[in-house]
Amino acid sequence: MSLETMRPNPTWDAASYEDTVDTLAAHRDELTYKVWGGDWCKDCRALLPDFAAALEAAEIPDDRIEEIAVDQDKQGPGVDEYGIEYIPTIVVETDEGEEVIRFVEEETVPPAVWLAQELEAELEAETA
């Protein structure tokens, strides 16, 4: 089931987030984004449309984005397996299913920005 909240925000300005888009685009063929959310959730409605717009601007293939709807009790596919407590939660994985980074609703910057920053930090740590 797809999430209405993952419909890209048409007013999101990719040019204002060039570094974020570039980082996401650089890894478009090697990472998968698993997004847990609910269309009923105010945090999801506030955060996910811009995140979806960033993924669209970075030309992330649809088959690398998995939208997972949860009910108002935050129950749904993969919730227990991934330890999902808050939504939105975005888990970024390698093709081997290894979790690279995770965005959870309480971060202080938008999901795309936070994920791009953490992704850069993670990759720098691997090459150091």
TrEMBL record:
It comes from the Archaea. CDD domains: TRX_family. Pfam families: Thioredoxin. Residues 3-128 form the Thioredoxin domain. This is TlpA family protein disulfide reductase. It comes from Halosolutus amylolyticus.
